Amino acid sequence: MKHFLSINDIGDIKSAISTCQAIKRNPYLGQGIAKGKTLGLIFLNPSLRTKISTIKAAQNLGFNVLPIDVSDAWALEYNEGAIMDQDKAEHIKEAAAVIGRYCDIIAIRAFAKLKHKAEDEKEQIFQSFVQYAGKPVVNLESALRHPLQTLADLLTIESYREKLEKNKKPKVVLSWAPHVKALPHAVANSFVEGIQKMDYEFVITHPEGYELDDSFTKDAKVEYDQEKAFCDADFIYVKNWSSVKEYGKVINQDKNWMIDHKKLLHTSQAKVMHCLPVRRNLVIADEVLDSEHSIVIEQAENRLYSVQYVLAELLHSNNEKLVKNEYKEAIYDEC
Ligand code: AN0
Ligand code: CP
């Protein structure tokens, strides 16, 4: 794995999940393999889970963690060939190359701005670091994807799957829920991308007009009737997103789409998931979040193991001579 920009950068997802499970059993597997290495962290948006789990996982491996506050640095120009006679003082070409000399891995969060679809889809900051930094880049949520979340989500489903009826293929439903703000599509896109690698029954439910980009959904089943979609579900993954067609717009805030206890009655005692942060009694009712149905805290805990796996894997693939043996012994032999 050269970079971790999407769940597709993981070759064998099942083996990745079993390595995450081994890390969960012993988070100090691979302790010290990153000694003397620096992880640069660039956050252009708020975060609780991603920031803390990444720092903690990095520390478990022995990284020095270097938070990079780009709002403190020079205003950056991204356009190739720009004549820089306005307010931008530094080009991303130099900035990324310099940060690449200071760090061994660079992790970035930069959400969709939700104004212009084509502009967001360029994922300019990620592409610039991949092109100019010369070091592995980790996606901590880009305009289109949140793959560390997805890996933790799959790990969560797999650990509850063992409790299902033997040989039952889990039924997983991705449900849109209302929100007051226009939210990005990254979590939902990535989830769909990850689920398609697994052997699950999968249904997406949302009001008409909230179709996700078909480059992600491909031939996934869409059911506009939430109640029908929930029938016999084992896992309900709740998430709001804004419209893709009317890009970045909130076109429906129908409160009937909130997940409450009544909606779970025809499920197979479904476990309810959400990436968090979640707005209570708007997206999911208290009675669900405070019940046995909710597995959102374990899901958030699993963020630790997914990011520790990705950091170790990047170090392993990009510093073969340095860490191959220690890493193999520490992690793979455990699985
Ligand atoms: C962000 C989103 O929906 O993409 C981050 C979720 C991990 N959520 C909010 O902005 C509330
Ligand atoms: N789920 C998630 O990425 O949470 P944060 O935005 O708090 O990092």
What does this structure look like?
With 335 residues, the protein is α/β, with parallel strands linked by helices. It has 2 domains: 7-145 and 303-323, Aspartate/ornithine carbamoyltransferase (Rossmann fold), CATH 3.40.50.1370; 148-298, Aspartate/ornithine carbamoyltransferase (Rossmann fold). It has 12 helices and 11 strands. The chain has a 5-stranded parallel sheet. β1, α2 and β2 form a beta-alpha-beta unit. The protein is globular and about 60 Å long. The two termini are 19 Å apart. The chain binds N-acetyl-L-norvaline and phosphoric acid mono(formamide)ester. N-acetyl-L-norvaline (AN0) is lined by residues 183-184, 186-187, 275, 277.
Summarize this structure as a short list of keywords or feature phrases.
335 residues; alpha/beta; Rossmann fold; 2 domains; five-stranded parallel β-sheet; four-stranded parallel β-sheet; globular; binds N-acetyl-L-norvaline; binds phosphoric acid mono(formamide)ester
